[in-house]
Amino acid sequence: MRSPTRFRSAAAAALLGLLAAFAGPGGGSAQAADEPATTVGDVTGFDAEGPVYHLTAGRAEARVSFVSTETFRLELAPDGKFTDPTGDDIVLPQGDAPRTKWADKGDRYELSTSKVTLRAYKSPLRFALYRADGSRVWAESKGLSWTKDTTTQSLARGADEQFYGAGMQNGRGNTSHRGKKVEVSVDYNWDDGGHPNSVPFYLSSEGYGVFRNTYAPNTYDFAEPVTATAKEQRFDAYYFAGRGGDAAKDVIGQYTKLTGKPFLPPVYGMEIGDADCYLHNANRGERHTLDALKVADGYVENDMPNGWMLVNDGYGCGYENLAETSKGLAERKMKMGLWTEDGLDKIAEQVKAGQRVAKLDVAWVGDGYKKALDGCKDAYKGIEDNSDARGFTWAPESWSGAQRCGVQWSGDQSGGWEYIRWQIPTYAGSTMSGLAYTTGDVDGIFGGSPKTYVRDLQWKMLLPVTMTMDGWAASDKQPFRQGEPYTSINRKYLKLHESLIPYLYSYGHEATKTGVGAVRPLALEYPDDPKAATDAAKYEFLTGEDFLVAPVYKDTTTRDGIYLPKGTWTDYWSGRTYQGPTTVDGYSAPLDTLPLFVRGGATVPMWPGGIRSYQDRTADSPLAWDIYPQGSSSFELYEDDGVTRQHRDGKYATQRADVRAPRSGAGDVRVRIGASKGTYQGKQSSRPYAFTLHTGDAPSRVELGGHGLPRLTSKSAYDSARQGWFYDRDDRGGVVRVKTAALRTDRAFELRLDDTSAVGGAVPGAPAAVHVPAGQELGAGTPGKVAVDITAGTKDATGVEATLDAPEGWTAGTAKADRIPAGTTRRVEVALTPAKDADIGEQPLTATVRHRSAGQERTAVQRFALGVMPEAPAKDTWASDMKWLKSTNGYGPAERDRSNGESGADDGHPLTLAGKTYEKGIGTHADSVIEVYPGGRCSKFTADVGIDDEINGYGEVAFSVEADGKVLWTSPKVTGASATVPVDVDVRGARHVELKATDTNGSKSGDHADWAAAEFTCS
């Protein structure tokens, strides 16, 4: 966090203050504790008008209007006068109302469609909803109540009932809200606990949902009873009764039928975007809008996908030379976007000059959410009215209905591990409110580090949309700025995302029909799994039905607590299979590895070839199918021109892939690719196909259309062949690769693999598994050994040979074992010598174990991180002169021999404690950790610690020294007014020492924690 002297510009702060001033009332509990509430009384009148029913209770009047057989609207006017502030802003025309009937049952009226019955009890007026089979959906625990400025509904809570929704709830939402209070309002808090892009809608595991038709703030308290309060003296809610085992999806579908289905972005919108201010940027010096093209060249030169660039993203930035900028970006296969800070009055001329993306500022929230929704719709319409492109907008504050015109992102944050942690549950949780496209900036708009950038970008490449923002930070944050190995890792994941666009785009089309976005909490796909609603699944999500993503959100190379639900799950990188439900601990995840698993039965369409842009696709480009055969499965690929709106007039095509395979074990696999149905501009009339089938066992024969394909004997032969197949034992546990010549897309064809298996192999569990214990270290240039644990599967592993991939300049040996009995583990040690000039710190390597089991030659692999250590000090050494193995800091980088500065390096001031200036030391900002490597050669650590004088009495922290996981020393609480605290710690034998500064009062304001004169005594 920033210190009191380290804020954004005064102009930005003033703008935020202005926004807060006219944003209207915020959230919080809407009903004052000392204000008595009035509860609706007995029914005094009843009137039926077709699908609309009126019930009076004294002055109050309730109105029930049926929209469909499973959707209805319930209103209450305490004074008998109905109002509708939202008008036709949110709810769309719904067509003819259903047939209804009513009956007087003595103690209640029953208002019914063919699917549901709403009971209106008479004394007092109280509502309950039942399905046609007599099962209860929900029931009020008491009648509707109100104060002078609130209305509240109270519902009985089921014993195991879970709750989701309320829009974007930062840090929450993909697991149940049960027992929690959730605010639905603007609060301009874009960090953990904030709720940008709120939606006054929630759904229940009991199979129903509620949408509060209002612009007023809402508070949902999912206690017993559940209370739903809106800050207005009118009650207006729509109810949706879901059907069957996919009741939650059905509820989302009904809600988005009412308020609008999600839009389908242009295909370039699914590529990563880039945002910055290029005109007179105070943080970058004098620049011009055309300078954006130099940054665009960086993506091209680094072979990185990028679909669009916002060229004026900064308060007061402005722009110039729009048409020329747009033309230059188009030459680099990118579109131009603009930030609409200054309004939409010029959008027509901007779009005609080439604008295709409109980002809305927080100012668009205006007076409540109507302005936010109008801004989204108007910007979207402005693009479509002045071009043939699809509307594409972004907003940090929106409301119900915005899913039909824009992407919602979680606002301005500082990058870091905590940022990654709380963002993981945010976006899958948003899907439960019909928000199909939600995201956050890669590594925030300031702060962060190369390592957190990589970790954040990795998992966000499994979201349909995202962008990186520059200009606010001390240095630019494009994915090619961090240097190696970070640039290569970022490229790997950007290209993975690009290859998955056919899969993501198909789910985008599905969302226009169902309202359900691609990014999903486990509870949506596994509603009967008791762990899916709990914290066991909080820090993971599904992309579509097939990918389970478990991001790394700590500075570590292992990931614990990965929950895999029922089914077979395959590690995307190694091919190792797991049977769920199970929890995976100790998953090896070096910096270049995102824990990613694929569901058995997955059939994933992809673009192969490592392309940088969708525009790299030609009429001759292949389509790939990545298949994990298990039982009967299918996937329907959706394709259109990707840019125009012609798909809304039926100009699109679908192609279905059907796979038949054994449920488990040995058997034949059949893949039928149906004819592509439909047409659009640029559709391929023919194309080659490539298949990757994760079988774990080689087939005896592969046929295409009844004719045998040639078996190729090597990867190089396969790559150069026009068509054929190759079994690659070394690729992810064993895959069958098949390629075809160009085939007509208007004709179906079948691929047949004889005598192979379902995913997991002909003998499930037979392959050995490899695990490299974490925490192993070797010195640069120093010979050593790496321990590798090999666990045989259900069959003995024989002829075992373990090797390590060795980067250039390293040398590696081989370890062998004749036989490892089934179910047992043997540790082998592989000789390895890092290069003398090897990079210090975590180095990702791969352990490869080749072996034979169950009659097949097999290969098991494990990616792992080896710690490469610097030479340990041989004499007394300043901590600021040592190589830092870890450097995490509360704001900006930790500084060597300077106090903590802004977000750039070397921008601090001389270290000063209690009037004394120090030449040597470390300047941090709590919370911070500096890790160094004394390597057991040092006996003592000394320092003077305190909060730097530049803070003028602010701040409150505690210091600690830890060695090899043990706390050796902790300071008392230190404030900006405290005396300097001396440190003298015995560190004999310690290999790793961590210097920590921890915030102690929760504010993190002014916590400039200095380790002055920090020195190790060594020999």
UniProtKB/TrEMBL annotation:
Q: Give the keywords, sorted.
A: Glycosidase, Hydrolase, Signal
- UniProt xrefs under SUPFAM superfamilies: (Trans)glycosidases, Galactose mutarotase-like, Galactose-binding domain-like, Glycosyl hydrolase domain
Signal peptide range: 1-23
A Pfam short name: DUF5110
Query: Residue ranges of region Disordered?
Result: 646-667, 889-912
Q: Where is the Glycosyl hydrolase family 98 putative carbohydrate-binding module domain?
A: 873-1018
Task: Output compositional bias ranges, type Basic and acidic residues.
Answer: 646-661
Specify the domain of life of the species encoding this protein: Bacteria
Q: Which family does it belong to?
A: Belongs to the glycosyl hydrolase 31 family.
What is the designated name of this protein?
NPCBM/NEW2 domain-containing protein
Q: Which organism is it from?
A: Streptomyces atriruber
